[in-house]
């Protein structure tokens, strides 16, 4: 088995040296807000609770996105700001204290409480950091109280997870600077996917592996100069800066999408921890081969097809690389809300030079380019999918790629199928 070459180490700006200039779009945007991240984060952190300080619109968004039944006990809620709060007729901090006191009395199982800012709370300058500090002192040590912003005023929805994880970094215990190296997987993954990666790292020979976020508040892994971390998600820029501020070092790798991306991701850790290459190859040979066979089921449907990504989740660049590298799709335009050139340097190196890259959003211009390019498949937000379908375009909901298990060897076939399905549906409807 041929091992992938090591990271080139080239400067990020060199990765796109021969590519056409990146289009920088500034205009109308069409994305969910960062509150959406609560839908997968509250399932991941099993003793955490997310209290959104926002409006009834925020509450309706979370309720509908999560599909929570009226009799369920979810681990999120909205402290609804009424007209008197917005008008300054009551002390919003006193009102928040009252809500938190009532919540913690009812739910003694909560070990970490996130106060989540929204557009309304930020517009009236409600200081949730001050509230978290005050309430944290009151309820310490039984409950850890943190805050972050889920506002969608200037961000895309996956940055909600980034802000949440960044707020956890200061809470991580310090590791022994002179101790053994430890590996940290950064990014929320479905439990089954995380368990698969943990088993693979154990078989490879890397025994000290932690995850951020941890499933329990008491299980936050150690952090310090001995920490080497792998990003599982490409949208965690703020979290990465916070980790490196405490001495951790990022391992440069492709993201773990598909057989090749997952191999490169695992291999970056194996090389850092001095794992024998032959042993590494023997461990991943079976899962990698299964992934390739699973991907092959969608190859006939996707091979040679042209695809455009409208900016939505920040997953666009690594997914375009996977589709081009492993399924021979042709990326026409790869739009992303924010292009982190350092974290995506290796991904960018593997994209075809013909692909158009765009950063930011201007909905009207990007829709005009879709109409002109006429791709076989367009990946976009929910609000744009139906109008494009009405014009005869096959579309894929971008948010489904965030909610679905798509990382790793065992999910590679499912990831390919997510793109093949809308094309198959289109072919059936044509008949």
3D architecture notes:
With 431 residues, the chain is of the alpha/beta class. It has three domains: 155 residues, Rossmann fold (3-Layer(aba) Sandwich), CATH 3.40.50; 122 residues, Nitrogenase molybdenum iron protein domain (Rossmann fold, 3-Layer(aba) Sandwich), CATH 3.40.50.1980; 105 residues, 3-Layer(aba) Sandwich (Rossmann fold), CATH 3.40.50.1980. It has 18 helices and 14 strands. The strands form three sheets. The chain has a six-stranded parallel sheet, sandwiched between helices. Strands 3-2-4-5 form a four-stranded parallel sheet, sandwiched between helices. Helix 11 runs parallel beside helix 18. The N terminus is likely disordered.
Summary, kept brief:
The chain has 431 residues and is an alpha/beta fold.
Detail the topology: elements first, then pairings.
Elements lengths: L22 E4 L11 H7 L3 E7 L1 H11 L9 E5 L2 H4 L5 H15 L5 E6 L1 H5 L4 H12 L4 E6 L9 H10 L13 E5 L4 H14 L4 E4 L14 E5 L5 H9 L3 E2 L7 H15 L4 H20 L2 H4 L3 E4 L6 H12 L2 E7 L8 H6 L5 E6 L1 H11 L3 E4 L1 H9 L4 E3 L2 H4 L8 H19 L1
Helix pairs in contact: 7-9, 10-11, 10-13, 11-18
